[in-house]
Structure prediction request, 207 residues.
Amino acid sequence: MPEESIIKPIYQKIAIDIANRIANDEFLPGDKIHGRSTLASEYNVSPETIRRSIILLRDMDIVDVSQGSGILVKSKDKVFQFIEKFKVIDSISSIKSDILSILNKSKEIDQELNESIDKLINSSERFKNTNPFAPLEIKITKEAGLLGKTISEIKFWQETGATIIGIRRANKIILSPGPYAIFLPDDVIIVIGDENSYDRIMSLLYS
Prediction:
């Protein structure tokens, strides 16, 4: 999925440009800015686009628009508030875009992890007679005595000689869960161990 791009409307860009021109003293308070037709020609847009740009500036009390007098610069002080306002909007939009991008990448990584685990399990099923360390899937029922405890607390590896490489939970896979992962009802642990691991694991779970 492509990343979301941040595109300002053209009228907003023109309003910001005019505000910057006022900030740089190209237009001073009391000066008359070119009429809409002239600005439309200068920015190569329609007069309607210029009208919308000027409305933005007027609403911030940067310019005054009156029939006969045209567009007059009203305040330079308001210009900086206007520019700062759109900097904040840009910042928020940029953060939103970053979050969406990270979420999309996270979904792709989760999908790749799920596919890799499935490939590992399928491959192990096909060659289980030749692989002494084939992954096992063991469901944790409500009767298990380790519910609410962590992998480290029950000394899983020390007691079973097996390693938990993943936990299936609510249709998701937690890969390499680490020593502080907690066992919950209906979890399915994916473990790698020797041919006697299954018995040791079941003994640990339900002793």
Remarks:
- The first helix runs from residue 10 to 23.
- Confidence is low (pLDDT under 50) at residues 1-6.
- The chain is about 50% helix and 15% strand.
